[in-house]
Fold this protein.
Amino acid sequence: MLELVEQCDDGHTPLLGLNFGRTLDNKTLSKINKKGHQLNQYDPSIAPWSRSLKQEYDFICCYRVFEHFRFPFKEWELLTQMLKPSGWLAICTPLLSDLDAFEKWHHKNNLTHVSFYQQATFEFLANKGAFKLLFAANGLILVQKPSGSDITRDQTSVVA
């Protein structure tokens, strides 16, 4: 997560982020704060509802929590509503790449894992909301919310 904040840091604007689904240690939080950013934390096992869920964020991180969602579309809607326009959602969850291999997939054997995803799942969700989508290594999925602006630049009408 710290790497994501460092990459987003433009040196000018402090970012407000949310670590959704689990809590970070104080050492990591301190490093983020020293960069000038703020990271709120939300863990449903500690507090099922929080003021943190009523704010908008520049970025939201979900590390190994999507597989625990009993109602994944409900959580997706919540997360995307909390993102500011052009904000980033970073998801880390194992993706099932071969349906025929599901029976042998060790990830399904954890009883707390109740939702499983494929690349097509996130492609569907991203397309539904016109989000930009990037699949990185090791089950890291980056999703960027649209800017909210319909303004486009017409290159043919530029006056010299």
Remarks:
- Residues 72-82 form the longest helix (11 residues).
